[in-house]
Amino acid sequence: VYVAEIKLPEEEAQQLRGTLTLRAIDRAANASAPITDNSNIIVVDSIAPTLDVSYSETVVTDEDGNVLQEVPESGDYILNYPTEFTVTLDVNEANFYTDDIAISLIKNGEPVTVADVPAIRWFESITDEHQGIFTIAEEGTYFITITAKDHSENITTYTSPEIRLDMTNPEIDVVFDGGETAYNDYYYNLTRNATVSITEEN
Question: What is the pTM of this model?
Fold first, then answer.
């Protein structure tokens, strides 16, 4: 009686999905009938999903409000939107299931309940490349965390920069000092000072 062990996969970077068929052959080339384990699907996956996240085009600023001509590769920056925006997910994963992609939101410093997190709309794919989108349409300051995992518990996590969705126009109020009487409704013979007040969150 001989016992053999099989290592799957042969290389760590290799991924496998399928059934296992075995056959024994002796030195005289006599072969047994093949035996196939059709009751189990073998999946060997040691590679975490890759996840790329992109956003609708918009104005990018630093924390002081200075407009940046391009998104920096590192450091803090802010995405500013005057209307709803779309987030695009590009996932590369051999053993892909849409339920393995999870989104969590922080809005105005508070976690958003799972029921209120936007649903991802996935596009049909016959390859390992998968794309989905979701839209955020309510005003607020957001941080987005996306977790992509596979059934082998390999995990990739992404955290967004600060994102501000502001659909409210600034309010301006002007008040003049003094109670001088205007001549011909519009003309004054004394200097007047105006106090300008602007109401705006951002």
Answer: 0.70
